[in-house]
User: Fold these one by one.
Assistant:
Number 1:
Amino acid sequence: MKVVFNDQVLDFDAPTSAFDIAKKLKIDSIALACKIDGEAFSLNHTVDRDCTFEVVTFADELGKRVYRSTAGFVLAQAIKNVYPTAEHAVGGTDGDGFFYDFDFRIPIAQTDFEKIETEMKAIIKANLPIEEVVGTRKAAEKFVAKSKMPYKAEHLAALKGDTVTAYKTADFYDTSEYPLLRSTGKLKAVKLMSLTGAYWLGNEKNKMLTRIYGTAFEKKSDLDSYLKGVEDAKSRDHNKIGRDLGLFMTDENIGQGLPLFMPNGARVLQLMQRFVEDEEQKRGYLLTKTPIMSKNNLFITSGHWDHYKDKMFYMGDEDMDDEVLALRPMTCPFQFTIYKNGLKSYRDLPVRYSETATLFRKEASGEMHGLSRIRQFTLSDGHIVCMPEQLEEEFAGAVDLIKYFMHVFGIEDDVTYRFSRWDEKNAKKYVGTKRDWTRAENTMRKILDNLGIEYTEAVGEAAFYGPKLDVQGKNVHGKEETLFTVQIDFALATRFDMIYIDENGEKARPLIIHRSSIGCYERTLAMLIEKFGGAFPLWLAPEQVRVASLTDRTIEQVLEAKKQLLSLGIRAEADVRSEKLGKKIRDAQIAKVPYTLVIGDKEVETGTISVRHRTLGDLGKMTQHEFATMVQYEIASKEIKL
Ligand code: ZN
């Protein structure tokens, strides 16, 4: 048989293992797995036909997954040895690591990791070969039934195809989404990271299992620098900084994903909202304010009831009650209803509606995090209803507004653009025909190319009613999140029977652009907290100035200075505690207050104040008037002083 590798052709007389092929190519030391005619296999796979051959190394995403899936396999085996009664569910890879779900039947804590890791090390040291076993589905089902593995049986039922590939060492068998390494000894630096509860198959109605997370690297030094990075990211996580700074809190009696904004956090959100709404007004947006809930009739028309119901909160039972009320997951159908109030002519278009909208989404409990994934959130939502010939200009306008906001907030260099498309193979997830989608996607691609936006394409990430341009940011843990979106919709205007009278006096169908400008306020705030480490630019800082007394003799002057600053619209607080000045300055630094003013006897005598900037240090003495003028200028310019 002939094996083609890059431009080399190797000849073999008999079936050969992938490992021996790699050896002949002198790449066996770096090869973790291989691809045969594009399909991934373990190096223990036997090649028995003409094919192309590619090598998979740790430098590839696939290589990392192979490596970490093997670590998960070794973890599962170690658990079997240490906890013989534990039931194995299923494992996988995720981000920088791997995980495995178990039904332990006894309480397990992170303190148990040491003995589990010791057992994993023993399995790695024994360098057990990991064989690839291919069998029929029937044989696999029989085996699983005989071995009494209820979770595996359910998992097997969910796998596609008539044959099943399993991997085995001695008497331990498991399946894996990715091929595994050829022996356990290939693993070098493995570490268990954390443990959490996870519902079996992600369904809240199922039993809660224990999920163990870990990671694995080819080199100990890479693992060490990764662990250092994780510690670093934890200290920069908005979920820590935001709570430490008293921006928000949560309470178990209120529930997960329902943050409470405390005075400082609420202030920052208010400042963002004022700025966004004012800028939208300048750009011709019309403000709406619509209910947070509606009869489900509205969502039946919009398609949400068919395509989105499992992510919605609603009250009442469709079969029992006359009226089912649902909390809204999106603003679209409400603004469409307003559009339909009164006949529109071509002269009225485009209509740009915007609303700071409170929305609700039933996120799974395991998916919620800080402010970035929550159940109630606030979107800078909006819909542009336009004629087809206005689509490109309106789309460009929506993108320009997002770019402007990103520039002011200082995050324009931290994002990438994604063209989110539908998944033709999953057509029932979407409204509209293949023709509608081809048309919408072609139009969108043309617009993006004309705007000169560099983007990646993602199949299956579209909204159910149309393709999206997603502006993607990364959190401190390296996880990508959608911050802002602009979407083209060829479907909902028809579903809502929205029309306008064209120049010939005929009824015509408008197009709709769904857009968010600054996105979800909570998530964007999370990004800003991480970007600035909680030290907001002056215009956004909840407390802009702290006035501190040097001695109890100047308390009155300090309180007066605070009052004057407040009257000028500058957010000031006073620190008149009987503490040493050093402590007062340190506390203001920890609270990330941009300016600290100090008033002592000397300042009172000369009618001045001593000014300190959080990062620039001592700025010397000035009069209160000089200081206020300087600060007002800095606030108005929205300057970012790092
Ligand atoms: Zn919408």
Number 2:
Amino acid sequence: MSGTLYLCATPIGNLEDITLRVLRVLKEADLIACEDTRHSRVLLSHYDIHTPVTSYHQHNRVQKAGELIEKLASGLNIALITDAGTPIISDPGDVLVQRCYENGIRVTSVPGPCAGITALTLSGIDSGRFAFYGFLPVKGRERKDLLADLKSEKMPVELYEAPHKLKKTLADLYAVLGDRSIVILRELTKVHEERMKCSLSEAVSYYDTTEPKGEFVLIVEPAPEEEIRREEDSVFAEIPLITQLQEYMAAGMDKKSAMKQIAKERHMSRRDVYQAVLEAEAEE
Ligand code: SAM
């Protein structure tokens, strides 16, 4: 019988934020795979856990997954932890989980802290729906494209950021998104836990004179509805409606569904779209 991979969430700052189940699983597992064994030893010795550890991180995640799969297949139970919070969430673990599923190995999650969720609960913003983007790509086209995507995001956008990159990220967000409202959550669950709500321009000025320290989660509020609508309308203003219809039909949509889609995207009634199509067809 093969063993089980346990995905265990660990504290994001306060050592008391750990569940009884995680502690039991860490004690009973045959092996603990840690992102950084030296870092995790602090937590493990605090709770008097002496299970053997091995490293599993971003750079050995593909090759090491094979080794861990062999151990799981031979019947060992392995607990996966990262430096802080929930594995997989902007952290290593996804390759290993996929390999487990491919090999018929049981995976279970032992939930607990996650900086993104903790930040959201503290933010004070309407967070019924939100878009989690994790870390922005560091530079180049990928970063530019992703920042452009954020502009049309209708939900609050949540980002992780390291202190040494915070100033640049705030400046880029301000340049691309304009002066939106942002909530900056710092050092969650730690002594210097802090929540700051301001505009992006205020955040840029603040961190011009204050060196960012600690760990950060950023939540940028969405653009006002009218701004999104104005932008979408300006894109469609450049494309004749009949051309859009032809493109959708060439892509395989039937005429009725294409007109319905166009009405939605252009904020028009279906009747007006139908009328505009009739007129354009009459002119052809
Ligand atoms: N897997 C983790 C989780 O569940 O939240 C996230 C790991 S990611 C590599 C680390 C990032 O999470 C940090 O750069 C920071 O953006 C955020 N983070 C982690 N702990 C935090 C804390 N105590 N306060 C604020 N942000 C934190």
